[in-house]
Every structure is written in structure tokens, then in C-alpha cells.
UniProtKB/TrEMBL annotation:
The lineage of its organism: unclassified sequences, metagenomes, ecological metagenomes. This is PD-(D/E)XK endonuclease-like domain-containing protein. It comes from marine sediment metagenome.
């Protein structure tokens, strides 16, 4: 059993009736942790899984409703920044970014920069153009940020960094209940504003949940810095320094020595971890499905982790359709696989080919209309 599950099992048993708020990166991960605890026969009464954004929404929700402000999505904020970029360019207020077109890549790059600044708790008034290598670039970044802030205020909108800032303000008036404990993974990357919110909402009722070590690989400095800041807040942090290294009980648990194979314990050969090679993504997906079918694995117990992009989900969709396997996708499917997407592609294809009757007939016969 890994460190995270064993710690949670012990902690839930020792604090059975105490309310425990476990802050996780996603609800999906929280659901998986709950399933593992249940499958191992451990009770997790009063253990609730939340994300930091949802906790901020809960903290500042009443204030947002009172002010008549609603939260803006990432896609909507990108669209808003795109309009700001185009307007500033048309008005001739850009010098450094003057030659750039308002493409999705450019807007996304600027959006990432502005988002990082806001997640660090910085506003346009906090920045100085002198801090940038190129002063005119700094001036325009500050201008983008200022216009973005003004547009949010004008439309009565709030983005995620703004939500955290408001939640921090409201959390100052929250009385910390000693009977409520907040748990957080010890190896987690948090921005400056997220750390501040966690400090305000949890106070000293914070417990860091240990995770399995990775041998032969140094932790990024940002992990250590955040861990030290959060650990300084809590008197209930479990000390994971020193002591004997945990002994693995399966080949899967030997994965902790992936970057230090010379020091790894001997293999168990229990088939909990197997490697295979295949030529191309299609053959990789086929082999995975072959193994699932041949070993009669329950699909509810199978999770496939793949590189970013639509390649693997698309392949699994096509192959699972042929084998009648019921597969779900955490990030959804590409639009082209859905009925509305097929209709859209069919209509555009029909128009691009001078409205040929054959293309329209093919669209109607497809059964998606």
C-alpha cells in the first residue's frame, strides 16, 4: 500500500467523526482515492474531497452574488483578451507587439503571462516597465493587464486569480474550527495567491499528506519552497525525513526506483507492471485493448494515461467502437466524432464543393441530421 493511502487510512481511523477536508488537484483524483480506500476495506467517514477553486468559490460565493459578479471561464477570458489586443493594435498603441497578428497562439501566450502575474498576486499598478529587459515590452504588458482588469470590472466579471483574492479577503473573518481539519498533498505546486488562500482558510488546522518518494530524481525547487511555506504554517505536518526506506511489495511499487535502477530492490515478477513495445500509436492502442479483453479486466478498474493531444483518445474511440467496449474520456472527444460535429463538417464540405447534390445526399444518408 502506498504512503498516501496508508496515511489516510490511519488518519481517518484516528479521527473518525472529525470533519476532514482533503484538497486535491481534481475531483477525479479524489474519487479515485475514495475508491481505493473502499477497496482496501478502510472507512473514510467525514472525509470530503474539494479543489482549491471550489473552496474559493464556496468562501466568496455569497459576496459574488451580492455584488452581481459572475466568474469568467478561461475560454471567455481568452476571447476578451483577443478583443483587447485587436483594439489596441487598431488604435496604434502597440510598438513591441505591433508586427504580431492577433492569432490564437499570440493571444494564448500573452494570456499565460497575464494569468501568471495575477496568480502571483500582482496587478498592473504593482508592475514597473523598468523591471523588464525591454522597457517598451514592459509598458505594453502592463497596458494589456490594465485593460484586462478594466474590462473585468466593467462587465462585472471575475477570473480565477480575482476569485482567490476575494476569497482571501472573506476568509479573514472566518473562525477556524478546531474540529475541522484540512489535508493537502505535500508535493503540490501552488502559486503565491493559492498559498495565501490556503493559509487563510486552513490556519493551523492543516495536515500534509505524504506521498511515495521518487529515488534518483531531485525535487524541483518550487516543490521544496512551497512545502516549507505550508509546513511552517502547520504543527500537524508528518515528518518524512530520515527513517528506513519503504519496502515495496510488488513490481508496481518498484516504480519509485525508475530513475535509480541500480538501487532498486529485486523484481517480484508478479505481473503488476509490464512493458511492451509497438510500432506507432495505433498498434499501441490495439495491444492495450487486446490485453484488456484477453485478461477479462473490468473496465471500471482500467485507466489509460496517454500523452497530451487528441491522437490517443481518437484512436481508442475508433477501436472501442469496433469492439463494443464502453469507454469514457476524461477530457471528452473531438467535435468531429459527435453527431453535431459530423453535421457541421458535412455542411462545410458541401459548401466548399459548390453545393454538390452528392455531398448533400451523403450527409443525409449519414443519419446525423
Amino acid at each position: 500500500m502506498n504512503s498516501l493511502i496508508s496515511f489516510l487510512a490511519e488518519y481517518c481511523k484516528a479521527h473518525l467523526l472529525q470533519e476532514k477536508i482533503f484538497i486535491v488537484p481534481s475531483y477525479q483524483l479524489g474519487h479515485q482515492i475514495g475508491e481505493v480506500l473502499t477497496s482496501k476495506g478502510h472507512s473514510w467517514v467525514n472525509l470530503h474531497f474539494v479543489t482549491l477553486p471550489s473552496l474559493a468559490q464556496e468562501t466568496a460565493g455569497v459576496e459574488l452574488s451580492t455584488r452581481g459578479v459572475r466568474q469568467i471561464s478561461k475560454a471567455a477570458s481568452l476571447f476578451m483578451l483577443d478583443n483587447i489586443f485587436r483594439n489596441l493594435k487598431e488604435e496604434g498603441k502597440l510598438d513591441y507587439f505591433r508586427e504580431l497578428e492577433a492569432s490564437s497562439g499570440v493571444v494564448k501566450a500573452i494570456h499565460r503571462s497575464l494569468f501568471a502575474l495575477r496568480m502571483a498576486g500582482l496587478e498592473s499598478k504593482d508592475l514597473s516597465a523598468e523591471s523588464f529587459i525591454k522597457k517598451n515590452k514592459g509598458e505594453e504588458v502592463i497596458l494589456f493587464l490594465k485593460k484586462y482588469e478594466e474590462e473585468l470590472k466593467r462587465r462585472k466579471l471575475i477570473d480565477l486569480p480575482g476569485l482567490y483574492s476575494l476569497a482571501i479577503e472573506k476568509a479573514k473573518n472566518i473562525h477556524h474550527d478546531e474540529k475541522k481539519t484540512y489535508l493537502c498533498l505535500q508535493d503540490v505546486t501552488l502559486s503565491r495567491i493559492e498559498v495565501e488562500f490556503l493559509k487563510k482558510i486552513a490556519g493551523e488546522n492543516l495536515v500534509l499528506v505524504p506521498q511515495d518518494p521518487v529515488y534518483g530524481l531531485k525535487k524541483p525547487r518550487r516543490f521544496l519552497k512551497i512545502k516549507e511555506e505550508i509546513a511552517a504554517l502547520s504543527s500537524k505536518v508528518r515528518n518524512d525525513k530520515g527513517g528506513p526506506k519503504p519496502e515495496p511489495s510488488s513490481d508496481l511499487e518498484r516504480a519509485a526506483w525508475l530513475f535509480s535502477p541500480k538501487d532498486a530492490p529485486p523484481p517480484f515478477k508478479d505481473k503488476t507492471l509490464e512493458l511492451f513495445s509497438a510500432i506507432g500509436p495505433t498498434n499501441e492502442c490495439r495491444e492495450i485493448l487486446r490485453r484488456i479483453i484477453s485478461e477479462n479486466l473490468l473496465l471500471d478498474n482500467v485507466e489509460i494515461i496517454h500523452p497530451a493531444g487528441d491522437t490517443y483518445p481518437s484512436l481508442f474511440y475508433v477501436l472501442s467502437s469496433k469492439t463494443n467496449l464502453k469507454v469514457t474520456y476524461a477530457e471528452g472527444l473531438a467535435l468531429g466524432f459527435t453527431s453535431p460535429g459530423k453535421v457541421f463538417n458535412g455542411l462545410t464540405d458541401w459548401m466548399e464543393n459548390n453545393f454538390l447534390v452528392s455531398h448533400l445526399c451523403r450527409l443525409i444518408e449519414g443519419g446525423n441530421l
